[in-house]
Amino acid sequence: MALKTIDALELAGKRVFIRVDFNVPLDPQGRVTDDARIRAALPTIRHAIQAKAKVILASHLGRPKGKPEDRTKLTLEPAAVRLSELLSQDVILADDCVGDGVKKLVRDLKDGHVLLLENLRFHPEEEKNDEAFARELASLADVWVNDAFGTAHRAHASTAGMARFVKEKAAGFLVQKEVEYLGKALGSPARPFVAIVGGAKVSDKIKVLENLIAKADAVCVGGAMAYTFLKAQGVPVGRSLVEEDKLELARQILERAEARKVDLLLPVDHVCGAEPKETAERVVVNDRAIPDGLMGLDIGPKTLDRYRQRIAGAKTVFWNGPMGLFEQKPWSEGTFGIARAMAASPAVTVVGGGDSAAAVEQAGLVDKMKHVSTGGGASLEFIEGRELPGVKACEE
Ligand code: ADP
Ligand code: MG
């Protein structure tokens, strides 16, 4: 079904309710420590302002449990302050997201002005996708726009439920870009399509692996999950993290890859340590097998080279999951090596997953990728081939 984007709608004079993802990290003083999510929503917000809409923004922040102190700890005020700086215009902050006070603020809102509603999750009805609450939110809006990709995998009142009760609906530019890359670029990829998959656990990535094996020409496996695959093949892995109860599953995945003639590459060498600590001695093991007493904590240099060659020959590259314990310097080379190889490639390069995106950010290479997904869980569910309620709700 066609995804309508905000720029397809006439917005002048209308109450345009934009669900954004302002779930930003705060320091103990309540200041925004990383405004990336706010900046990611700016194109859609600016478009609505310039189109002379009455702009109503709504988001959740954290996980309020209904305690009174949550009201002060998890207010969207810091986000309102930061947004106002970024827009160089006033942002009115409501003290709630529903109720008579909010209705009055909306009635008084002028064209081109911005109102930010207070944390949606102060009401448990938001996450329950309560119909009456969804209707309340919808009563504030002529147009509903979803630009909160990070929560698009959740069917909550503001991310999906209220869409039924508004006249017009559309996706924001951020959601559109995510769908374009995670959906279209990976759904009908330019070939060869190479996937790089890592991270801590096979069990987290079963569906991702299955879906990628169905679509990619090669899947390069790294990270801790690689040791479960190696052990499943009978290769000794020392003290490396292994999911013993997933060995059979790993075997099935290997068989499926073979049956589909997809190259599933596993590490041929490793960077190991006696324990997963920054201070542990870094030992390069030039073999598939890992000696007793050592843990695999990163892919080795030969493996990195092989994966780099695959990336260099690809027209589409998707990466999810770090190649090692990259948060600690001795085990970060594989992960940053993959990031650099992708950054240097002219292919359609897409990164999904919270920790993988953080690694690309840390390497300063976000702008060198075609797309780094802003949604951790949402991007993985997308790659698993699932329909995201927040995207579906935007469709006509
Ligand atoms: P993403 O968020 O990108 O989907 P995951 O959450 O699956 O990625 O995995 C990320 C985590 O996996 C990182 O914190 C990283 O340190 C860890 N990890 C990767 N390889 C190893 C390893 N060999 N040993 C221990 N932890 C690892
Ligand atoms: Mg993660």
Can I get a quick summary?
The protein has 396 residues and is α/β, with parallel strands linked by helices. It has 15 helices and 15 strands. It has 2 domains: 6-174, Phosphoglycerate kinase, N-terminal domain (Rossmann fold, 3-Layer(aba) Sandwich); 181-383, 3-Layer(aba) Sandwich (Rossmann fold).
Secondary-structure-derived class: alpha/beta
Total domain units: 2
Q: Which stretches of 5+ consecutive residues score pLDDT under 50?
A: none
What series of H and E elements makes up the topology? EHEHHEHEHHEEHEHEHHEEEEHEHEHEHH
Strand content: 5-15%
Number of helices: 15
The CATH superfamily of the largest domain bears the name Phosphoglycerate kinase, N-terminal domain
| Topology, number of strands | 15
The CA-CA distance between the termini, in Å, is: 7 Å
Strand order of the largest sheet: 3-4-2-1-5-6
The overall pLDDT average reads 95
Using the CA coordinates, give the radius of gyration: 23 Å
Structure description:
With 396 residues, this protein is an alpha/beta fold. It has two domains: 169 residues, 3-Layer(aba) Sandwich (Rossmann fold), CATH 3.40.50.1260; 203 residues, Rossmann fold (3-Layer(aba) Sandwich), CATH 3.40.50.1260. It has 15 helices and 15 strands. Helix 1 crosses helix 3 and helix 11 packs parallel to helix 12. The chain starts with 14 loop residues before the first strand and ends with a helix. It binds adenosine-5'-diphosphate and magnesium ion. Adenosine-5'-diphosphate binds next to strand 12 and helix 13.
